[in-house]
Structures are given as structure tokens and as C-alpha cells.
């Protein structure tokens, strides 16, 4: 009983800092924006407008279409990762991370190079491009643990390969399919940079409309109303995702032994070919971006890369392109350090609460876990504008501090760090901790001697993953970054909003550099990843 009480007290204490951070830098700004909207009395009228629900309908429709495309494209790749023994599978696993962690501004420009007019089709394909990895790695993680004997028995009784998959394998995979679909829908519904670049003035989602009403129209009550609609959809998606994730984890535990991959047989080669076809299509936007960055009026050249040493055409930037890149590196470093510190504490607290025998402690852990995921789905513009309203009340007035952008970026990274570290910490054998405690080690030493060595690789991968996400963050940063200290994604957005061939060349060159850095970091992440943690599982 004393040990249980100590664990509960320790979990509560560790949860203190993440709770304070979430309260100050998320709940407070969001509540302030919503309260301001109600104070002005515009929420009711905005919710009554037909345009509001047209925006909501388009947001849901494009997210649903993107999710469907990602599911259809991701399933063959999941089969390749889970069931096929080929030398290139390791390369495929690493490559899949690249689209997932590419900055939204990079993907937006890549599809703009392919689809200059933009539109609904471009938006759907771009969002699906991001999320094929979520489906492939989430579904593939469970598929690798499915017992083949049920499917083999169905084939022996005369079922075709498709019927055996439909009647035996697919029902067993549904927890992972539902979990990945909920996450993909959430990401697509809150997509900002892609819709802003490809939708133009004609196609807007709730996320981009919140930005327009806040920044351009100063319609705070209207933006608050739209934030409420978006928040309701996000909470629903998170609940569905949490339920599906628990079912997937239960299914994986019931099938603890992974099946050995083998070479494809018969009709399985068609699935493998489909998977490689999807991978080839994922290369097309990346190749288009690289080609566009080297294209000039006079043919091929490095004019865009050389122009990064300047301020752009007609003073598009207040700093040089390379200065913006250095700002990105510094800001991403600060955000990563903060996010890893808070995220690891939160993960340790969640493990302690979930291992408790007290039902209330386990319930508190579930609530805290869900709360820590909320920043992924709430409008970055809402949070950013909330910062400007609320953080002036804190000592030092963070609104003028260079730490303002790292705080906003860390808010997005923390849920990702938790999702990468938490499964590893939960997999640590409790008997190791108990043995260390029996030998006289205190809680801190137990963590240092037992948990930290086992989780070190995942911690390093989480830090690298958080860094590359912060490096390309565009939503909140575009609103909070000062004109004299923009990050590279913000500078790219500014360049694309100004006419001029030099500005366009600089933007594509900067996007290509971001893409190359992202690819390098994605390779490092995959080399460091733990078998218990899958990037893309939320």
C-alpha cells in the first residue's frame, strides 16, 4: 500500500510541470480568445451564419477525402513493411518519414509546382501525401503481429486471397485502421500551410478562415466562434483515436509474437507492386520541387540559392535568407529542449499513473494524456493570438521576448515527444525497477540507471523528430515571428506573397534546403527508433 501511495504521489508531482505548462501556454490563451469572442457578442451570430457551416462542411469533406486517399495508398505499403522480406524494406521505412515530417510550406510549394492552379484536388493530394506514413506505419505495426494461420486456413478452405483478406485479416486490422484514420483526419482538418498556399481565396477551411478573420479582418468574435466549432471536431477525433488506440494496443498484446516476414507469393506481388507505385508517386512532388528550384528563365542554374544571401526583390524580406535560416535553427533548438523536458516528465507521470492500482489515478492518467494531445488539433492562430492577449500579464512580458515562438512551437512538439517516449517507458519491466529499489536506489537513481538507458535511443529520436517539426512549423510562427526575425518558413511565405522571379526562385531554393535537412534528420530518426515506438502513431 505504501509503495502504491508513493507511486501515485510521484506521478502527481511529475505531472505538475506539464500541467502548469499546458495551463499557461495553451488553456489560458485559448480560453482568453473564446471569452473575448463571447464578450463582444459575436459568437452566436457567427454560428448562425450559413458561411460558417459551409466552411465546416468543406473542412470535414476535404479531410475525409484526404483520409480516404491516405488509407487506400497506405494499406499496400503497410503490407510491404509488415509481411515482405526484401532488402529495400528498410529503405522504404526510412523514406516514409520524409513526407510525414516535411514542413507544410515545403509541401504546399511542391504541389504548387505540380499544380499551379491549386484547388480541391491539390489540397486533398497534398494532405494525403503527408499522412501515408501514418497509415502505413500504424497499420503495419499491428499487421506484423497478426497470426497468419487464420488467413491460411481460409485459403485452404477455398477462399480467394481477396476474400481471405476481407473476412479474416481486415477485421483484425480494424483497430489500427480506425486509429490511423482518426489521426489523419485530425491532421487534415487542421491543415494550415497547405490550404493557404493551394486554396487561394476560393477554398478555405476553418483553420485558414480563423487566420483571415484574426489577422486581416480583426473579427475576434467570428474567429472565436470558428475556433469553438473546430475544437468540438478535434475533441471528437481525439476520443475516437484514443478508443481505437486502446483497441490496437490490446490486439497487439494478444499477438505478442511477431510473424516472420517472407518473400511475396502469387498474388501478393501485385500488392507489393502497388506499394512501390505509391512510393514512386510520393517522389513526384519532391522531384518537382527540386527541379523548380533549379529552373530559371535562361535554363538551369543556382540563381535562387545565390539570392538567399540577399533580401529578395523589392525588399520582400527584412533580413537575408540565410539569416532567416539561422533564426530557424536557433528557434528550433530552444523549442526542442523545452519540449523534450516537458514531454519526458509527462511521459514518466503517465506511466506512474497508469501503473497505479487506484482507479482514480488511472482515470487521471487518461484525462492528462488526452489533454496533452489537444494542442495538435487547436488552431495555431488561435493560440498565437491568445499569447499576445494574455502573456503580457506574466513577469517580463513574453510578448516581446525571443522565446515567444519557441514556446508556441514546443506546444506542438510535446504531444509528439510523448507519443514516441511513452510506449518505450511502458514496456520497461517493472521488476527491474523493483530490483533497483530493493538494492537501495531512490526514484531518481532508478530512473537514471534503469529507465534512461533503455529509453535513450527513443529520447534521441524524439529530440530529432521535435527539432525537424519545429524547424518547419508555419502556423503559429507565421503569426508570432517578428518581421526582423522571421524563421525560414515564414520568409518563404513572405517571398511567395510578393511578385517577382527572384522572390519565387528564393522561395523554392529555401524549400529545397528545408527538404534536404528534413530527409537527413528523418534518416537519423529511423536509425535511432525503438522497436516499441512508431513515429506517426498518436
From TrEMBL:
Residue stretches spanning the membrane: 12-38, 58-82, 94-115, 121-146, 167-200, 220-244, 269-291, 335-353, 374-394, 406-425, 458-481, 506-525
Domain of life: Bacteria
Membrane topology: Multi-pass membrane protein
Subcellular location: Cell inner membrane; Cell membrane
Residue span, ABC transmembrane type-1 domain: 56-239, 325-526
Keywords: Cell inner membrane, Cell membrane, Membrane, Transmembrane, Transmembrane helix, Transport
Pfam family, one: BPD_transp_1
PANTHER family: INNER MEMBRANE ABC TRANSPORTER PERMEASE PROTEIN YDCV
Family per similarity comment: Belongs to the binding-protein-dependent transport system permease family.
Protein name: ABC transporter permease
Species annotation: Prauserella oleivorans
Source taxonomy: Bacteria, Bacillati, Actinomycetota, Actinomycetes, Pseudonocardiales
Amino acid at each position: 500500500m505504501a509503495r502504491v501511495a508513493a507511486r501515485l504521489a510521484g506521478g502527481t508531482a511529475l505531472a505538475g510541470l506539464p500541467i502548469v505548462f499546458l495551463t499557461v501556454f495553451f488553456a489560458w490563451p485559448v480560453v482568453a480568445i473564446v471569452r473575448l469572442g463571447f464578450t463582444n457578442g459575436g459568437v452566436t451570430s457567427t454560428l448562425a451564419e450559413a458561411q460558417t457551416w459551409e466552411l465546416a462542411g468543406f473542412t470535414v469533406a476535404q479531410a475525409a477525402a484526404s483520409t480516404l486517399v491516405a488509407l487506400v495508398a497506405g494499406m499496400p505499403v503497410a503490407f510491404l513493411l509488415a509481411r515482405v522480406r526484401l532488402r529495400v524494406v528498410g529503405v522504404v521505412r526510412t523514406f516514409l518519414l520524409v513526407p510525414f515530417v516535411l514542413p507544410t510550406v515545403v509541401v504546399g510549394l511542391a504541389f504548387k509546382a505540380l499544380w499551379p492552379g491549386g484547388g480541391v484536388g491539390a489540397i486533398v493530394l497534398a494532405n494525403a501525401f503527408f499522412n501515408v506514413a501514418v497509415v502505413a506505419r500504424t497499420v503495419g505495426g499491428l499487421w506484423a503481429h497478426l497470426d497468419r494461420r487464420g488467413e491460411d486456413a481460409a485459403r485452404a478452405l477455398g477462399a480467394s486471397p481477396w476474400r481471405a483478406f476481407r473476412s479474416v485479416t481486415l477485421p483484425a486490422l480494424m483497430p489500427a485502421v480506425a486509429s490511423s484514420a482518426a489521426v489523419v483526419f485530425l491532421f487534415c482538418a487542421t491543415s494550415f500551410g497547405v490550404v493557404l498556399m493551394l486554396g487561394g481565396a476560393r477554398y478555405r477551411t476553418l483553420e485558414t478562415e480563423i487566420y483571415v478573420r484574426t489577422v486581416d479582418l480583426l473579427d475576434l468574435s467570428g474567429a472565436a466562434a470558428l475556433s469553438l466549432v473546430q475544437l468540438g471536431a478535434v475533441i471528437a477525433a481525439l476520443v475516437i483515436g484514443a478508443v481505437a488506440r486502446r483497441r490496437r494496443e490490446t490486439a497487439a498484446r494478444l499477438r505478442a509474437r511477431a510473424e516472420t516476414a517472407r518473400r511475396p507469393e502469387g498474388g501478393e506481388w501485385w500488392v507489393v507492386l502497388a506499394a512501390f507505385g505509391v512510393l514512386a508517386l510520393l517522389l513526384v512532388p519532391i522531384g518537382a520541387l527540386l527541379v523548380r528550384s533549379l529552373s530559371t528563365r535562361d535554363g538551369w542554374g543556382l540563381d535562387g540559392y545565390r539570392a538567399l544571401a540577399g533580401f529578395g526583390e523589392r525588399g520582400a524580406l527584412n533580413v537575408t535568407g540565410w539569416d532567416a535560416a539561422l533564426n530557424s535553427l536557433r528557434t528550433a533548438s530552444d523549442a526542442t529542449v523545452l519540449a523534450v523536458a516537458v514531454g519526458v516528465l509527462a511521459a514518466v507521470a503517465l506511466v506512474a499513473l497508469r501503473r497505479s492500482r487506484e482507479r482514480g489515478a488511472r482515470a487521471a492518467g487518461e484525462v492528462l494524456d488526452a489533454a496533452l494531445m489537444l494542442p495538435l488539433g487547436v488552431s495555431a492562430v488561435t493560440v498565437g493570438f491568445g499569447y499576445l492577449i494574455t502573456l503580457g500579464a506574466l513577469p517580463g512580458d513574453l510578448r516581446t521576448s525571443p522565446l515567444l515562438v519557441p514556446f508556441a512551437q514546443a506546444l506542438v512538439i510535446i504531444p509528439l515527444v510523448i507519443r514516441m517516449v511513452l510506449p518505450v517507458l511502458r514496456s520497461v519491466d517493472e521488476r527491474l525497477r523493483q530490483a533497483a529499489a530493493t538494492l537501495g536506489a531512490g526514484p531518481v537513481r532508478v530512473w537514471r540507471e534503469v529507465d534512461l538507458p533503455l529509453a535513450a535511443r527513443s529520447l534521441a529520436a524524439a529530440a530529432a523528430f521535435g527539432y525537424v517539426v519545429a524547424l518547419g512549423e508555419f502556423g503559429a510562427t507565421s503569426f508570432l515571428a517578428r518581421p526582423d526575425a522571421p524563421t525560414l518558413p515564414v520568409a518563404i511565405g513572405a517571398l511567395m506573397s510578393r511578385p517577382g522571379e527572384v522572390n519565387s526562385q528564393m522561395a523554392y531554393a529555401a524549400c529545397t534546403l528545408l527538404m534536404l535537412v528534413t530527409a537527413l534528420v528523418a534518416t537519423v530518426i529511423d536509425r535511432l527508433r525503438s522497436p516499441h515506438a512508431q513515429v506517426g502513431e498518436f
